[in-house]
Specification:
alpha+beta, YefM-like fold, 2 domains, 93 residues, 3 strands, three-stranded mixed β-sheet
Length: 93
């Protein structure tokens, strides 16, 4: 994801209401998030759909890696030879 530029990527909610299409187009073109503020504080983030989906995929992969690391640490593993044999039996029938 491209880096946020506070000078162009932070807008009050009132500006978003007045220029919704332009800000959505900005997000789609630059692929940078837009931070919406309310009462001077961050309130929401507007992301390109492709960037959002990529973040969800990355989070899912990181969770799988964390689960695998915990399983390895707990000794919950299967020897390579056993897995190879199971795959041969399943797919090479």
């Amino acid at each position: 994801m491209p880096h946020l530029r506070p000078s162009t990527d932070v807008h009050p909610v009132t500006e978003f209401r007045a220029h919704t299409s332009a800000l959505i187009e900005q997000v789609q073109t630059t692929k940078r998030p837009v931070i919406l503020t309310q009462h001077g504080r961050s309130a929401a983030v507007l992301l390109d759909v492709g960037i959002y989906e990529g973040l969800l995929d990355e989070i899912s992969l990181l969770r799988d890696v964390r689960t695998a690391e915990a399983q390895i640490a707990a000794g919950d593993t299967i020897p390579h030879e056993v897995v190879a044999q199971q795959l041969r039996e399943r797919y090479l029938k």
